[in-house]
Amino acid sequence: MDGENVVVIDGDREIGRVPLHNLEGIVSFGYRVTSPALMGACAEKNISLCYLIHLGYLGYNSNTRKAFIPNEEIRQELIRVIKRKKWHEMFTFQQESEHLLEATLDMNEEAVAEEIEKIHMEYISDIKYNKENSLSSVLAIAYLSSMEYYFKPVRELPTGRGFADFVFISKPEY
Questions:
Q1: Which residue of 48, 99, 126, 138 shows the fewest CB atoms closer than 10 Å?
Q2: pLDDT tens, residue by residue, 52-88
Q3: From the CB of residue 91, how many other CB atoms can be counted at a distance below 10 Å?
Q4: Which residues contact 103 (CB under 8 A, 6 or more apart)?
Q5: What pairing do the DSSP bridges indicate for beta strands 25-29 and 48-52?
Q6: Is the separation of the CB atoms in 117 and 142 below 8 Å?
């Protein structure tokens, strides 16, 4: 950064300069050193930073509709990076959300109630525990994995004789 300009440097040579206000996002092919000043300015102005880092190819299983990493060496490297960056909490949450969705579709009310209660206790303060908006937030968080199969939940959907509090509408491909 130089004032309000993004400065692109290759080695010791300046190869570009762009006013920050002209940008909506910055995309880098491969990892490039980014100054804390630039990161802060981008965050402040809602400018996205994206690093396109090539670690390998993804495979896709059309039967399970899931992506996978076919190269074991690259898969192990990804696992190592995830563990080092402490992203495992997000993956654990994603897995729990998938289990909740499965329990819901299997009509396993005990498992659903247990998981909803767990998330409610972890994410909602005691002061707001019995508020409708708090429960709606819990449901939106808990069913995060449903976004693969359903559109964003609709709240207060008119039903003819009132309103449905929380509705998931499946995506056409499902």
A1: 126
A2: 766 556 677 778 888 777 777 777 877 777 676 666 6
A3: 11
A4: 111, 112, 115
A5: parallel
A6: no
